[in-house]
Amino acid sequence: MDAVLLKWPELTNPYHPRARALLAGDAAEVVTFVKRQRRLDQLMAMDRSISALDHRLLLHQRRAARLERWLRAAQRVANEAALRAGGDTARVAALDALNACEALAPVKTPGAPPASP
């Protein structure tokens, strides 16, 4: 960008008549100058590298999300098994009620009034 502004300082002001003339249409003169700059090739190569790394990051994030969901499911199963093995009937009943709510099929509890339609 510095090379462009050194060549055409008028471009700092988008309303300058010279800047408007340079950037009108397809701005061929400016585009040709920029394409000849060596740094543009470096920036384009860096952009391609960043895009490739970004894609790899996305793949890793997807895999990590799947693994985290699997781990949480395994923890829930282990915790539920431990709770049921503990023999505390009140806690097991509470767990069953929570599971039923999550399944949108509430369990009938003894002594509770019937659900209204």
How would you characterize this protein structure?
Helices cover 73% and strands 0% of the residues. The protein has 5 helices and no strands. The longest helix has 49 residues, at 38-86. The mean pLDDT is 86.
Helices and strands, in N-to-C order?
HHHHH
Structural class by secondary-structure content: mainly alpha
Number of strands: 0
Range of strand content: under 5%
Low-confidence stretches: none
Q: What's the pLDDT, averaged over the residues?
A: 86
Number of helices: 5
Taken from the alpha-carbon principal axes, the silhouette is elongated
Helical fraction:
over 70%
- First-to-last CA distance: 70 Å
Gyration radius over CA: 33 Å
Largest sheet: none
